[in-house]
Amino acid sequence: MSPQLAWHAARAAGLVAWALTAAAVIWGLLLSTRIAGRRPPPAWLADLHRYLGGLAVTFTAIHIGALLADTWVQFDVADILVPFASQWRPAAVAWGVIAMYLLAAIEVTSLLRRRVPTRWWRAIHLSSFALFAAGTLHLLSAGTDAANPWVVAAVGMAVTASVYLTTVRLLTPPRRTKRTAHPPDRTVRPETRRRAHRGPMPREAASGAAALSRASRRPATRPGT
């Protein structure tokens, strides 16, 4: 691979990886705040959130591979894996190394969510904000396209959306499940319990009760008639 082609591939893959990371963070905030209502459904947002994270990992790997193939700056494995080890803009490259580790931790724990304690998963997943900040600093300090007006506009919109949705998430109280103030009375009355316990009325008693009822309904006769 020619040095010029490797450098262009690294730049393009880096920009796409940052855009996918920003989109994944924004989609995750939309999922948690539910500011979009029920449309699109939360399940669709969750699937898209995971899909964007997987694409961000893929383009980050392409970005790293293109940097290792570049012979102009001559990055080695230590420059990619160790912060401040690079001789070329060490602080700017260090932000990218930190973002790479955070992205790997978030994706691995997301794939192993059923095997990872929920408390750990939430703590690691909250580092997505640090990932977005580190990736943005890496883009603006190490990227040669930081002065591009389109890149500046994209960064401004992504940061604004993230700050707004985070504010909404912090100020919105958690939803509570509705409960009935007075649950239905399912107790059995004592007379009903006794009636059920005694069973059906015998046939003789039933016939006597019926005769008594008919006698009570007859009109009273006047004397002398």
In words, what does this structure look like?
This protein is mostly helical and 225 residues long. It has one domain. Helix content is 69%, strand content 0%. The chain has helices spanning 3-33, 42-69, 77-81, 90-111, 118-125, 128-142, 149-171, 190-198, 203-217. The termini are far apart. Residues 177-183 have low confidence and may be disordered.
The helicity comes to 55-70%
Computed over alpha carbons, the radius of gyration is 36 Å
- DSSP strand content: under 5%
Can you tell me the residue ranges where pLDDT is under 50 for at least 5 consecutive residues?
A: 177-183
Strand tally is 0
Shape: globular
Class based on secondary structure composition and strand pairing: mainly alpha
Compact overview of the structure:
With 225 residues, the chain is mainly alpha-helical. Helix content is 69%, strand content 0%.
Keywords:
mainly alpha; 225 residues; 9 helices
Fold blueprint:
Blueprint: H1 3-33, H2 42-69, H3 77-81, H4 90-111, H5 118-125, H6 128-142, H7 149-171, H8 190-198, H9 203-217
Helix pairs in contact: 1-2, 1-6, 1-7, 2-4, 4-6
